[in-house]
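WARN  no MSA supplied for this record, continuing single-sequence
INFO  ligand: zinc ion
INFO  echoing inputs
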Amino acid sequence: MAYETLIEQWRSIVEELTTNTHDAERDAELWDRRKALWNEMRDRTDASPPTCPECGAQQWAQSFGDPKVCTTCDFHPTSEHEELIAEINDYWDTVLTASSNSQPAASPT
Ligand SMILES: [Zn+2]
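INFO  complex generated
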């Protein structure tokens, strides 16, 4: 699958997840797909996420409108951890923009 296609699908799932239908089964399915797509995107970049200062894990999540959170130990970086928050944002940006570095923009899909 082309990187652009991955990102497109990922974005549309993120979009869908912002619509709350109170359908837990649908949400769980979307989250799973979102995670699988993200992992595939991440595997195509050299980027690695910053390390959690509490437990050393490298898995971060953020729900719409919520603070960032370590998915392993539930650590929430606050304003005291500005640098860490910036590093997580940088990492996410890198994954979401990696296609322009690795593929010509006009490549057929
Ligand atoms: Zn942690």
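The chain has one domain: 3-102.
INFO  checksum written, moving to next record
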